[in-house]
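seq as requested:
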Amino acid sequence: MKYVLVGLTCVLLVLAFIGGSSYYKGQQAEKFGFLAQKNAELFVRDHSPTLGSDDAKVFIVEFMDPACETCAAFEPFIKQTMAANPGKIKLVLRYAPFHDGADNFVKILEAARMQGKYWETLEVMFKTQHIWASHGNWQPQKLLNRIWLM
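struct tokens:
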């Protein structure tokens, strides 16, 4: 009888802990949920390129430099994450052209965007980055030749 009482007490304590945790998380989400909505314009701008559903609850805001090797290496991970969660994630790109000459590649991306070819151009840029931006030696003509072949 003693073991049954101890077992029931443990089960009740675990259930109380789970219920309390759930209640606390709900209260915190309600209390601070407005902050994400209120401050969203700090990160998500009207002119920022976006990919994904407007109804998505998760936003990935990537500060991206087209000449950055890390950004190029990170791109497949972003694609994979978005493909695994269709309609649940919205990608927002913000430019951070820190590398020499990267501002020229941002201009190329924006020109492609005006022609409705933004995402295709960005993909070509990242896949061929080792050719046109090797070790800070940016060569826009090598990139433009590849884009014109699209």
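The first strand starts at residue 50 and ends at 52.
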